[in-house]
Design a protein that fits this description.
The chain has 93 residues and is mostly helical. It has one domain. The protein contains 4 helices and no strands. The chain is globular, with a radius of gyration of 13 Å.
Amino acid sequence: MIYRDTISREEARRFIGMSGDAPPHCDANVCHAPGECVWCDETPGWQQKRVDANQAFTGHKPIKGQKPCPSDKRRGLGGAHVWGGNIPVREEQ
């Protein structure tokens, strides 16, 4: 069996049997701002939920009156990015 460092979002979703509006990353609390991550941009519903909940996007400090990203609150700002599955994807692999 040959292993690669990265797989596409579609390959990952097929592998774990996900469909529909699944979270963009393995940690469902990770959601990057529009334009920061191809995977998150493919799930605008998740980005809109973050805006509607007045929560900061992953890797962003909350601005006045905004709640922190749940993943950053648990792991520290940017802490989710230590694992490859949560890093913002700049272009489809």
